[in-house]
Specification:
With about 450 residues, this protein is of the alpha+beta class. It has three domains: about 150 residues, BirA Bifunctional Protein, domain 2 (2-Layer Sandwich), CATH 3.30.930.30; about 90 residues, no CATH class; about 120 residues, no CATH class. The chain has a five-stranded antiparallel beta sheet with strand order 1-3-5-4-2, sandwiched between helices. A three-stranded antiparallel beta sheet has the order 6-7-8. Strand 7 and strand 8 form a beta hairpin. Helix 14 crosses helix 16. The termini are far apart. The relative contact order is 0.07. Pfam families: Relaxase (PF03432).
């Protein structure tokens, strides 16, 4: 099976071409000239594709409708011929093979055959095979302008997801593995890793809401009511192949089948029907109801809110998110939609609240004062590093040279920490305003809802 990807390159192109055909990756001792500044992007991408550290043989670097040794110049000639030298300079793609026993010759042959079929009639292409990873992979650098008619690469010529059929057909021809029915709807690795680490994501929060709604429903109508009360728009039409929900505050729908095998149309209906067998155990979904307070004791949230300042704001916000106190079981399914967004940013919010607590920062003035002190420390460290870099260029012995390099490495480590602190300060200044607006909006909605519930309660009694 070949994994494929394509993206546009608008700057530093020459480096990528050199990378793809680098002799240390292809053993192709290709001489090249550095491009003028306006074509540096083109030179960078060719350099990347030719990178000599990732190839071993000269024949792992080939050109289609161009000479690899002067590919950059030939790309530029076509652009200038049709007076299209601005914008996207080229497209850079790769084809990666699942097999670990495929030979470099076979990988290069498949890469050439693939590139010829997809772009060979109209475009110049540099094709290389990189051998420096566990899975061999081909790199393609495609000129953005056709040498035939001067038209841009567009439409299906750059619709990489449609090239799967071409790659699969070629892999099948040479006896390589391919998946005839790939799952194109699975979550990204980033979201999967976050879920495995127990961190909330858009999908995990939606899944929790779906589960909560199903557990409190005995009919599809009750299920729809629960979703609506939790702020989800939905399309559960029987005529739809895939049911969808849209979390409040979002525009893009989520296909329920993408959440797992238990969230297909048929399985959701089955789960709701299963609830009827345990009718007495099912607690119907209820909207928030007004409860008259007999004793007005201060809640933990009110105490945190009274603390005030930036630190108090962050603590109260974490309380509303359901993560303070830690032993309190949070119900993300019924969390306000404005807060659900920040569930996905808990790691950043945690770092920020720790900084505020550690440095005892409560006001904007204290925050900016601390940020200024960090920037001053960075300025002094950079000046010291510059002095050391000048020193190692002079005629000094090996001991002094190593000591200077070690000190520079230490300074770089300190600068990394300080830059991170400065970034946290900037994020706090920005996020705190958003937190205040979110809380104000949420509390206004809650007050309106409480007034409605109180009115209903009084009318009932």
């Amino acid at each position: 099976m070949a994994v494929t990807k394509l993206w546009s390159v608008t700057e530093r192109l020459g480096q990528v071409i050199d990378y793809a055909t680098n002799p240390e990756k292809t053993s192709a001792k290709i001489k090249r000239e550095f491009s003028p500044e306006q074509y540096q992007a083109l030179a960078d991408v060719i350099a990347y594709a030719k990178d000599e550290e990732k190839t071993e043989r000269e024949f792992y670097v080939e050109g289609i409708n161009c000479n690899v040794a002067i590919a950059r110049d030939q790309f530029i000639t076509v652009k200038e011929q049709y007076q299209k030298t601005d914008g996207i300079q080229a497209y850079h793609g790769y084809l990666s093979f699942k097999e670990t026993d495929i030979s470099p010759e076979m990988a290069q042959k498949i890469g050439m055959e693939f590139a010829n079929e997809v772009w060979g009639e109209r475009f110049q292409v540099v094709v290389t095979t990189h051998l420096n990873t566990k899975h061999l992979h081909c790199h393609f650098v495609i000129n953005s302008i056709s040498f035939v008619d001067g038209k841009h690469l567009w439409g299906e010529e750059k619709a990489w997801f449609k090239f799967r059929k071409v790659a699969d057909r070629i892999c099948e021809k040479y006896g390589l593995y391919y998946d005839p029915n790939p799952n194109r709807s699975k979550q990204s690795d980033y979201l999967t890793m976050k879920e495995k680490a127990g961190m909330p994501t858009l999908y995990s929060v939606a899944k929790e809401a779906i589960d909560y709604a199903i557990d409190h429903s005995k009919t599809l109508k009750e299920f729809q009511f629960a979703l609506k009360e939790m702020g989800y728009a939905y399309n559960l039409s029987p005529s739809r192949k895939y049911w969808t929900v849209i979390p409040k505050g979002y525009d893009k729908p989520i296909r329920l089948k993408n959440l797992g095998a238990d969230y297909t149309n048929d399985r959701i209906v089955e789960r709701i029907k299963e609830n009827r067998d345990r009718w007495a155990e099912i607690e119907p979904f209820q909207r928030a109801t007004y409860k008259p307070r007999q004793y007005r004791m201060q809640t933990r949230g009110q105490k945190l809110k009274k603390k005030g300042g930036l630190y108090g704001l962050y603590l109260y916000y974490c309380y509303r998110l359901g993560y303070l106190p830690k032993y309190k079981k949070q119900n993300n399914a019924r969390l306000h939609y404005l807060l659900k967004d920040d569930l996905m940013k808990l790691d950043k919010i945690t770092d920020e609240v720790r900084l505020l607590g550690r440095e005892n920062i409560s006001t904007d003035e204290q925050l900016f004062s601390y940020k200024t002190s960090l920037e001053e420390q960075m300025k002094n460290l950079i000046a010291g590093r510059t002095h050391l870099r000048k020193k190692i260029r002079t005629n000094i012995d090996d001991g002094q040279l190593q000591a200077a390099k070690d000190e520079i490495a230490s300074i770089n480590g300190e600068l990394k920490k300080l830059r991170r602190e400065v970034k946290l300060c900037e994020d706090i200044a920005e996020r705190s305003k958003v937190m205040e607006e979110n809380l104000e909006h949420i509390e206004t909605e809650e007050q309106k809802q409480q007034r409605k519930e109180k009115s209903r309660y009084e009318q009932r009694w």
